[in-house]
Amino acid sequence: MLITTEIVRGIHRVAFWDEPDLVSAGLVPPGTTINLFVIAADRPALIHTGLRRSFRRVHDRVQAIVDPAKLSYLVIPHHEGDSSGAINLWLEAAPRAVPLCSDLCAGLSLRDFADKEPRVVADDEIVDLGSHRLRFLITPQVNQWDSLMVYEETTRTLFPNDLFSSMGTDITTSQDHSTVALSSARELGYQPDDRRQLIRALDKISPLDIDVIATMHGPAVTAQIDTLIRTFRDNSLSI
């Protein structure tokens, strides 16, 4: 199943789940979405590349939103199959696109893995897309050691890497998502309970004026965001 939804102005969520070939290969657990985000800006960007095996079907959905050849940036929040597995296929389809990643992600992975030299972004750096503005937050050890998050300033949308992810196939939720997200973090084990690094990341996002959290897995969160952040701050992620 693939669904494309404009969750805020100019930001489109491309989600897929329960694709038989990907489930049977053990790449995606049943009932779990992998979400990519197309920012249809003056200089378009794609956040997450998706799996290599998912490229063709996702490409067709992206093509209905923007011409892939006009993509300016591929944002890689960390190096992992669902986040960067299809990067070289996207670079072939979008020859002008530049990969954006953390210094650790470039040095440990993308300078060797990617077919184009990535551009390293600094903490609090702004990349202007024209109609949208991306602010990068370097958040090491939040899910992966090369992690970063992205805050889109004009729509007040946070792309938190894997943090706050959950099971389920809903597009958005306006309910309190904190219990579901905390339980998912504990049960799935995607986030080590490294309090020092987690608190540092939460300290970076807490002052932001966030209207939407665009999770990598599960629904986009549109309400009670302060409660969600506070729940992760105040509770252990260990079972």
Gyration radius, in Å: 16 Å
Sheet/helix structural class: alpha/beta
Low-confidence parts = none
Quote the beta fraction: 15-25%
The major pleated sheet works out as:
7 strands, mixed
Q: Report strand order across the widest sheet.
A: 1-2-3-4-5-6-7
What can you tell me about this protein's structure?
It contains eight helices and 14 strands. With 239 residues, the protein is an alpha/beta fold. The protein has a seven-stranded mixed beta sheet with strand order 1-2-3-4-5-6-7. Helix 6 crosses helix 8.
Topology:
Layout: E1 2-8, E2 11-16, H1 20-24, E3 34-39, E4 45-47, H2 55-63, E5 73-75, H3 81-84, H4 87-93, E6 98-101, H5 103-113, E7 119-120, E8 126-128, E9 133-138, E10 148-152, E11 157-159, E12 172-173, H6 178-188, H7 195-205, E13 212-213, E14 220-221, H8 225-234
Parallel strand pairs: 4-5, 5-6, 6-7, 11-13, 12-14
Antiparallel strand pairs: 1-2, 2-3, 3-4, 8-9, 9-10, 10-11
Summed up:
With 239 residues, the chain is α/β, with parallel strands linked by helices. The chain contains eight helices and 14 strands. The strands form three sheets. Strands 1-2-3-4-5-6-7 form a seven-stranded mixed sheet.
Task: Sum up the structure in keywords.
globular, 7-stranded mixed sheet, alpha/beta, 8 helices
